[in-house]
Design brief:
homodimer; 11 helices; three-stranded antiparallel sheet; mainly alpha; 2 domains; DNA-binding; Four Helix Bundle (Hemerythrin (Met), subunit A)
DNA sequence: TGGATCACTTCTGGATCCCATCTGCGGGGA
DNA sequence: TCCCCGCAGATGGGATCCAGAAGTGATCCA
């Protein structure tokens, strides 16, 4: 227990905070500040920042420090294309390899999503709440991770995680929040993917997944371009 | 000039040596040895090893050090599937986005490969030489990187590089070396991809590329399984 | 003689120290 | 008054120092 190196813990915590926006894009990460907060020396912090740099999460400027990378609309589209290809592969492979437990997890995520949609449908206030965001993200994650696990390809999971780290996915929630049209579309796309998997249609599953991820990332790209135009 | 951090240089050099087999799989990387060789202190070396760990190239065992990761046949197949999906996407995108210079680079790589095949065809000795290996790998790299550049997706390039780092590709040369059947097949697959791109057939290009990478990685997987059975 | 134990060696992980470089500010000169 | 230069503080990069963990081998006891 506790056999994890300090630098690893720092990496994970910083990843988390950057991903969920707690540490905003463009901010500088200072050795001393982070070291102090974690109650450690600067050495493991430096190692952590080098790792984040290698992962493309921050940029290290010599003698200046590490700064959190932002993402243009173009970045979002490019990452969307990559993620679509990878998740499309996952869906295609899952058709052959997914097991019953994973199928059930997938079905459950669908039901939960539908139930949440029902609940928040005619309730704009609730739909914008943090609780609602939590549910969208959780059911969404469960659905995708069931298929990912069903692909039986561990390196594929690693690659998708890698892409995910480069793109703060959580910045996608405000895109959906309160937009019942997009939420409904999301559900329909999920159902289309699930149906193809149930029916053992590998090409169909892949194509449905690719279309799904591309449309989602297109929405996100537009959102990003919109918000960056406003400042 | 020389504005690159020492740890970055160490990372790149170690990547290179591990990729080309100069540092064998399973060997331990010791701080002091590497530090001494590079004429630096252990600090940047430690940072470099953390980065290699994050990239999945080495495993860090607490209080023991870093060891170069090996690859089972299964790993090779999984990575092959991932790479096939990514390069397939590159081919698909290249159909729409590739420019004339990149087309010419692609054609030139094809011609060079064919010329090399011709030259070494009836000459088993030359075909096994380091010079021959050099030419196979170079023309192969040129062909794929032309298409990659033609995809116009920088994040895609990054992801493929990431997969490539996890799998010492150069270990694939001995698979081809002197095997004119595989080399010829390789050339034919490349030509099929190039034709689809020329004819603006996105699906065809993707499928040809996926088939190409999968068959190549299947050969590599068999080779790996064969050699690991021998010890 | 075989096996367990304990001291020694080696090496990593984290902390501290030192130095180079960059930024911001204030004073002096045009 | 404005610009430029230089100095001081802040910050990061690299080296060194120290403590603790794991392997190794010798020694002692059954």
């Amino acid at each position: 227990m506790g056999d994890e190196a300090i630098s690893e813990r720092v990496v994970e915590e910083l990843q988390r905070r950057i991903l969920n926006g707690q540490i905003p894009v463009g901010s500088w990460l200072r050795h001393s500040t982070i070291a102090e907060e974690f109650g450690v020396s600067r050495t493991p912090v430096r190692e952590a920042l080098r790792v984040l740099h290698a992962q493309g999460i921050v940029t290290i400027v010599r003698n200046r420090g590490a700064r959190v990378n932002g993402h243009s609309g173009r970045d979002v589209r490019e990452l969307g294309e990559v993620r679509a290809a990878l998740e499309g592969l996952a869906a295609e492979l899952a058709v052959e390899r997914i097991n019953d437990a994973q199928i059930r997890q997938m079905e459950k995520a669908l039901e939960d999503f539908a139930a949440a949609l029902e609940k928040y449908a005619g309730n704009p206030e609730l739909a914008l709440s943090a609780e609602a965001n939590q549910r969208w993200s959780e059911t969404n994650r469960d659905f995708h991770s069931a298929i990912l696990a069903g692909s039986g390809n561990h390196h594929l999971v690693l690659s998708i995680e890698d892409v995910g780290r480069r793109l703060p996915l959580n910045s996608s929630y405000p895109v959906y929040a309160g937009n019942s049209r997009l939420l409904k579309q999301n559900l329909e796309e999920h159902q289309r993917i699930a149906t193809a998997i149930r029916e053992h249609d590998a090409d169909g599953a892949r194509e449905a997944m690719v279309a799904h991820i591309r449309s989602a990332s297109e929405s996100l790209a537009r959102y990003v371009e919109e918000t960056e135009r406003r400042r």
